[in-house]
Amino acid sequence: MEVTRRRAGQSLAAIAFALAALGLVPGAQAADTIKVGVLHSLSGTMAISETALKDMVLMTIDEINAKGGVMGKQLEPVVVDPASNWPLFAEKAKQLISQDKVAVTFGCWTSVSRKSVLPVFEGSNALLFYPVQYEGEELSKNVFYTGAAPNQQAIPAVEYLMSKDGGSAKRFVLLGTDYVYPRTTNKILRSFLHSKGVSDDDIMEEYTPFGHADYQTIIANIKKFASAGKKTAVVSTINGDSNVPFYKELGNQGLKATDVPVVAFSVGEEELRGVDAKPLVGHLAAWNYFMSIKNPTNAAWIKEWSDYAKAKNLPGQKDKPLTNDPMEATYIGIHMWAQAVEKAKSTDTDKVIAAMAGQTFKAPDGFTVEMDAKNHHLHKPVFIGEVKADGQFNIVWKTKGPVKATPWSPYIPEDKGKKDEPEKL
Hints:
Helix content: 25-40%
Low-confidence stretches: 1-30
Structural class: alpha/beta
Radius of gyration: 23 Å
Strand order of the largest sheet: 7-6-8-9-10-14-15
Distance between the termini: 51 Å
Oligomer: single chain
Order of helices and strands: HHEHEHEHEEHEHEHEHEEHHHEEEEE
């Protein structure tokens, strides 16, 4: 009798499972989704930049789901808040992979957060898509880097500053937040400047902690450094909400772009939202996308985001919807991952990695961008824009087409001989 009951129970369970798979019982759809992790700071010093990326992930998931999902399944976002706390990023990554069983995670902004989670993703053989410009010096089998490497942002920006069109700068201030991305990027830039004949006497380098708010003394020192008679420019790798007081102090002290231009690598449309941009007109940013780019793909994407922001009543965005470079990199990454899953007919990490090689996507930047077949980085165009009074950017320079990323910089001697593809784990 007991055996009969057990067999009957097993049969009923099998029938219930089959019905659920067909979506014929309540709640079945939830069991037949593909879970997607969203790992961005929604509080703390980086929330100013990362909240919009979380919302872009959710919008893109809605867009894909409206078209039938991936492999016929709906995508189900799992959102966590690592709160600008770098060790907490690792804990939240473990939660997404081990407890929530996500198929992929889209997240991180700072390199210190990415470095924190890297052992988690590699140890679990899980996938992370990282959407922000970074310092290079890394290749992981388990990460796809959809932001810029230094040769796709930092190097072209400094070359522009040294050119006649960029003001023929001879002295440089390397100003950043005190962590791995600014310090490594500036190590690369110092070596690059040396190769162009710029001496250490003509380079000023300074760092501030996350959340730093008092830039009065630093900007006074920049003005003094610039008074030596040579054209001076500032290269800013300041990250997070510190950009607001930095740019406000630039305006307060009357440091105009015609005197000492600032080129930023982590300031876009979103970071300028809380700043009076009128005193900043002419200062620069280097990215792989600007909202002001004119083409039908970008216009449609901006409208989609604007409609989504208003429909979801997103704080800040509903009244003034803004797109920016890391949002575009997020959007591209999700679509490429979805295409790779369809090609692989599986969410299995190794199968998706193989299918990601050579994936292409018509991006809002106006180009068809491509995932490198070997190095897990996008081939991306480079743009340099001047700040306008409305907080948008006027594009003053761009590459003719997408640029292949060079993760291992030729300006760091110890990089010589390193392979341009991740080690197989």
